[in-house]
């Protein structure tokens, strides 16, 4: 995923947290914020040590989240910043389960473009 598609700076993370709309399920918490320059969505991912003590375990989960978002990219709105926070239940799950749970929480957060309006 390109760096322009990522929320990287601490100030950007804090802005999304302060002006957020959040939803959650058993594996993920998702914060969303509408932006004024709707060129494309931006994604931030946070994985705490509660998910996995070793760094490679956290990177494993982060890669699967990023790959799932890439697969959802054509359906996603372009005017939002998204923060995904993984919960400990995401540890040791396979790609299909992570993708299914991420899709569920994205639907709750209204991240996808409505098919009826196209």
UniProtKB/TrEMBL annotation:
Q: Which keywords, in A-to-Z order, does the entry hold?
A: Endonuclease, Hydrolase, Nuclease, RNA-binding, tRNA processing
Q: Which Pfam families match?
A: Ribonuclease_P
Record's catalysed reaction(s): Endonucleolytic cleavage of RNA, removing 5'-extranucleotides from tRNA precursor
Q: For this protein, what is the EC number?
A: 3.1.26.5
Q: Name one GO molecular function term.
A: ribonuclease P activity
InterPro entries with a match to the protein in the record: Ribosomal_Su5_D2-typ_SF (IPR020568), Ribsml_uS5_D2-typ_fold_subgr (IPR014721), RNase_P (IPR000100)
Q: What class of enzyme is it?
A: hydrolase
What family name appears in the similarity comment?
A: Belongs to the RnpA family.
Tell me, how does this one assemble?
Consists of a catalytic RNA component (M1 or rnpB) and a protein subunit.
Function, as annotated, reads:
RNaseP catalyzes the removal of the 5'-leader sequence from pre-tRNA to produce the mature 5'-terminus. It can also cleave other RNA substrates such as 4.5S RNA. The protein component plays an auxiliary but essential role in vivo by binding to the 5'-leader sequence and broadening the substrate specificity of the ribozyme.
Identification of the protein by name: Ribonuclease P protein component
Organismal lineage: Bacteria, Bacillati, Bacillota, Bacilli, Lactobacillales
